[in-house]
Design a protein that fits this description.
Order of helices and strands: EEHHHHEEHEHEHHEHEEEHEHEHHHH
Largest sheet: 8 strands, parallel
Bound molecules: zinc ion
Number of strands: 12
Strand content: 5-15%
Structural class: alpha/beta
Radius of gyration: 19 Å
Strand order of the largest sheet: 1-3-5-6-7-8-11-12
CATH superfamily: Metal-dependent hydrolases
Shape: globular
CATH topology: TIM Barrel
Helix content: 25-40%
CATH architecture: Alpha-Beta Barrel
Number of helices: 15
Length: 344
């Protein structure tokens, strides 16, 4: 492990979540059952905020906190902040009954514009009647990718009704970052939408697809989801996978297994913040992979992003994975010219 590598500050994290309770007119939403869920408290703590602080200062406080931590990071220079659209019912209306959490595009685009080290990851539910117009709007507002969480947004990536949406995504050159594998972070989920093979439809239409978490965990049709994803790489040159969440306690062996398949030219660095900032992730979970000195050095690192980079490097993630974002243009900016590869 070489700590001096941290000093390069060349990395873009393309998988960072924010959340809010609607404070300050943000439009963010967390369902009442989720606010009573034990995970809610853990997420708030991981964001570094308290509920009363959000009520007082508004949900923008979460974005400010992320920006400050990224600014303090010695390794990561920018982060893509992900919006999250809600569930849409049969008549095309937002269905708050079925929506677990929602982070509006307008909120993320507006807040990200205040912080040069943050980028806009949009989310448009393709079942909205005006989905195509919304897509144009988020691109005009500087979106660098589109994010889906199919299991909780009730989106079937293999639904042929989505073909016009995929065609426009491809024309706009906007990568689709979509959770694959089983989703356990939320209390309501439809896991079968996480089968990576359901991504063949957008891929066959030329869309760049990033399978979040490399399709860990779970099985589809009796086969390990990650293996189902890996089998697809030779067929689809525009298929990528992010390595976010792969150091979590519930996924300890997946990163090693993934790297053994020699697909690192399709892997992209991401963290799934705030989960890297919880007890789910610790170098102490790798007593047979890391020396005691490495564990101590990583554990002593106070910045969650630097700690994540150190841990993933120590576990053998190749250097090119940390700068893969350049191949997809994720660090691009709108007018400000904020970010060209190698900038600080
Ligand atoms: Zn995520």
């Amino acid at each position: 492990m070489n700590d001096s590598l941290l000093l390069q500050k060349t990395i873009v994290d393309m998988h960072v979540h924010v959340a809010g309770v609607g404070a300050g007119g943000s439009g963010c939403y967390v369902a009442p059952h989720m606010r009573r869920n034990w995970r809610y408290r853990i997420y708030l703590r991981a964001f570094g905020v308290r509920e009363q602080d959000l009520e007082l200062h508004g949900d923008a406080l979460v974005v400010q906190t992320v920006s400050k931590l990224i600014a303090e990071s010695r390794a990561v220079k920018q982060a893509v902040i992900l919006a999250l659209d809600g569930v849409v019912d049969g008549s095309g209306e937002l269905d708050l009954e079925q929506t677990v959490t929602c982070v509006p595009n307008e909120f993320v685009a507006g807040e990200v514009a205040r912080h040069p080290n943050l980028l806009f990851g949009a989310s448009v539910n393709p079942y909205r009647p005006d989905a195509l117009q919304r897509l144009e709007k988020v691109v005009a507002d500087g979106a660098v990718l589109l994010k889906w969480l199919p299991a909780i947004q009730h989106i079937d990536p293999a639904d042929r009704r989505l073909v016009p949406f995929y065609r426009r995504l491809q024309e706009l050159g906007l990568p689709l970052l979509t959770h694959a594998g089983h989703e356990r972070s939320f209390s309501r989920a439809a896991p079968h939408y996480g089968d990576p093979q359901r991504l063949r439809l957008p891929l066959s239409l030329g869309v760049t697809v990033i399978a979040a978490h490399a399709a860990t965990t779970g099985k589809s049709e009796g086969e390990d989801n990650m293996l189902r994803l890996i089998r697809m790489f030779p067929d689809y040159p525009k298929l990528y996978a992010d390595i976010s969440s792969l150091t979590q306690a519930n996924k300890l062996f997946f990163l090693t297994r993934l790297l053994r398949h020699n697909v690192h030219d399709r892997l992209i660095y991401g963290t799934d913040f705030p989960l890297i900032n919880t007890a789910l992730v610790s170098p102490c979970y790798y007593p047979f992979r890391l020396s005691l000195g490495e564990v101590a050095r990583i554990a002593a690192c106070s910045n969650p992003w630097d700690k994540d980079v150190l841990l993933k490097r120590a576990l053998g993630v190749p250097e090119d994975v940390f700068t893969r974002w350049e191949d997809l243009g994720l660090g691009r900016s709108t007018e400000e010219g904020l970010c060209s590869p190698g900038d600080d």
